[in-house]
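Limitations

Structures in this collection are predictions, not experimental determinations, and the ligand pose is part of the prediction. Treat each record accordingly. The example that follows, with S-adenosylmethionine as the small molecule, is included so readers can see exactly what is and is not provided: the inputs are given verbatim, and the output is the predicted complex.
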Amino acid sequence: MVNENKKIFNKLAQSYKNLWVNDIKEKRRVEKIVKIFGLKKGMCVLEPGCGRGEFTPFILNKTGSQGKVYLVDIADKMMNYAKNNLKKYKNIKFFNCCASKIPLQSQILDMVVVFNSFPHFYPKEKFIKEFNRLLKEKGILIICHDMPSRKINELHNNEKFNMKKNILPDKKEMFKMLMKQGFVVKKYENKEYYFLKAQKQ
Ligand SMILES: C[S@@+](CC[C@H](N)C(=O)[O-])C[C@H]1O[C@@H](n2cnc3c(N)ncnc32)[C@H](O)[C@@H]1O
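Predicted complex:
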């Protein structure tokens, strides 16, 4: 799965562009979603599956110059765009690797923000376990999409994307998986967008 994703996203890297990059209305919509994450100045945050780094400024705007953001992506071509797009920021560290095994010390993070990437992580338990290892006690895991799960899964099921396995599990399965890996779900929404906030116990 990891190699498959790497191939798919390396191929998509050049043309991949999020709506919010050029559409101000969409940017405002994403900003509104990010407000509920609870990001604060000085936080140490991981963004696994960062892609071209187009979402990262939403995090950086909240964590500020005192914060630290670790970016991880399996696809080197996506990551190269991220490095270029984010070159003005000094408090970022990049890791071109699988987000289920990140070469970072345990318990250093305040928050893990998985934005528009969770369906691609498989097997999901392995990733959640890694996020748990990296988070401090009571640290926060955010799993978020700019659309509801029904739309995401429809999109990935579309023949042209070749991503049928990259699915966002239903609410019951998500809660069960998170609980098993030592998280408690604090908030869940799945209407205009998908939002799940869980806390490490
Ligand atoms: C749909 S893109 C989203 C990118 C970014 N979060 C955004 O919103 O623009 C998903 C990203 O996850 C990355 N990815 C997929 N599997 C991964 C894995 N096992 N470890 C790290 N990154 C992965 C892909 O390479 C791709 O860049």
